[in-house]
Every structure is written in C-alpha cells, then in structure tokens.
Amino acid sequence: MKHKALLLCAVLAVILIAAALVLYRVYMENLDRYEVVQVGYCVCTEEINDVMDSYLELGPFARSKGALRRRLLSLEGVGDVKVRTSPNGLVSVTVINRDPDCVLVEDAPVPVCWELEKGTLVKAKKAESEYRWRVEITTAYCDNLRVFGADSGLYEILYSLRGLLDNKSLNTIVELDNNMSGNLGWMVITLPDCGALLHVKEPVSVSRLETALKLISERALSGTGRGTWDLYRDVLVMRH
Q1: What does each C-alpha distance from 76 to 86, 116, 133, 209 come to in angstroms?
Q2: Beta bridge partners of 80
Q3: Is residue 16 predicted with pLDDT exceeding 70?
Q4: End-to-end CA gap in the chain
Q5: What share of the chain in percent tops pLDDT 90?
Q6: CB environment 9-24: b (16+ within 10 A), e (fewer)
Q7: How confident is the model at residue 59, as a pLDDT?
Q8: Are 91 and 55 in contact, with CB atoms under 8 Å apart?
Q9: 3-class DSSP assignment, residue 98
Q10: What does the alpha-carbon distance between residue 28 and residue 26 come to, in Å, rounded to a whole number?
C-alpha cells in the first residue's frame, strides 16, 4: 500500500513538472517585445538594444532572466538591472546607470573637487586619489554644470576617455573647457613629460586623439615635439 502511494506521488510529480514545463514554454515563447527604462545617463543604448533583440531571438527554453541581467550588467556604465516579464508578452527592463568614478577638479585659485551624481555636480565625497579618473574643468565650465547640470555628452566623453586616463605610461592632464557640445572638442591636454600642450579644436574620435598624442610624444623624444599643438578633424599642426 505504501509502495503504491509513493508510486502515485511520483506519477503526480512528473505530471506537475511536465505541466509546469509546458506552461513555462508557452509563457516564454509568448515574449515578443520589450521596453527599456533608463535611470541616469546611458552611454550604451545601442548595445542594450542589441542584447534585448538577441534575447527575443532565443528559443523559449534558452531564455533566462538571470542570464539577460548578467549580459546587461557587463555593459559599460551599467550599475544595476531589473528584469520583469508579463503574460502579455512584454519584457520590461530597468537599467540603472552608474556615474563614472571621476573627480572633476575646478581650475580655480583654490582648486575644488567635484563629482557627478545623477547629472548634478556635488562636492567630492572621497579624497582625490580615491577616484579612478581625474579631469580638470575651467571655472566657467564648472559654473555652467552647477547651474544647468551635466548632459549626456559629458558622460560619453568621460567614459570614452577611460583608456587614455588609465594609461599610466603617458602622463596626461585633461582639461575640459566651457564650450562643450557632446563631443571631444574644446579640450586641452597637457603632456608634462613631453613639454607639450594639445588643444582639440574640433570634434574628433578617441582613436584620432590617441594617435595625435602618440605622434606628439614620439616627436618630443626626438626634440621636435615640445610646444603647443592644435588638433582638427583632418590635421594635427604645431604652433610656431
């Protein structure tokens, strides 16, 4: 009698598991669209959309909310992710973006350190050396940020410069001026070891900027690169 009861329980368990798998397949297969809500400034919108598109292309048993969350968390600047699915076929994703670990040093008679907190300039909460990146800003640009807040362009610049600022083999001081417009223009870079100053006069890519810095440092080693340089879209010139 006891054996029959155990057998019946096992059969019922198998039936319930099979039913759960069927329901899970139907539920996951029904997911056919998504919505993404951003909290904070995002610098990887296209990458997020690519991840979501590929998620919907997966088979129902290959879809995993945990795996989706991990893929989104691996993207640059993403601090946290919340994923919800609904019976109407919608995948709702909330992406909480992380502010860059950067200290902005106001180039004033008495330098002041600031950090970005959800687009707002606030006094730095840690010692300057504890931040990953350091960028100088003019007093005029600091005043502009305090009044109007930061736009997405500044976040894009700070994240795009991470490779340059992480490069410990080339001592660089980056200063952002007041005329920001969502690109790498209006930037001044000092190379103390090379005795060189680079003014970025027009919007350029990060790779273009890195190439210019490499050329200046090589010229400095040969004794011809010290001085002030201007970088435009298509040309790098040294002032005379």
Answers
A1: 28, 17, 15, 21
A2: 96
A3: no
A4: 102
A5: 30
A6: eeeeeeeeeeeeeeee
A7: 79
A8: yes
A9: coil
A10: 6
The pTM score is 0.70
Calpha distance 192→129 (Å, rounded): 19
pLDDT of amino acid 121: 92
Distances (CA, A) of 215 to 171, 190, 225, 226, 235: 15, 14, 8, 11, 12
Q: Show the tokens assigned to 167.
A: 């490069």
Q: Which residues contact 133 (CB under 8 A, 6 or more apart)?
A: 100, 101, 102, 103, 158, 161, 162, 165, 166
Structure tokens at 213: 């810095």
Residues whose CB falls within 8 Å of the CB of residue 200, separated by 6 or more in sequence, listed in order: 184, 185, 186, 187, 188, 189, 209, 231
For the chain, the 3-state helix, strand and coil shares in percent, each to the nearest 5, are: 40, 25, 35
The residue to which tokens 């904070």 are assigned: 40
The per-residue pLDDT for range 140-183, each reduced to its tens digit, is 888 888 888 888 778 888 887 888 888 777 778 888 876 545 44
For the stretch 82-118, pLDDT in tens is 999 888 888 999 999 999 899 999 988 899 999 999 8
| CA distances (Å), origin 16, targets 6, 61, 85, 146 | 15, 18, 22, 60
Identity of residue 2: K
d(CA 53, CA 34): 9
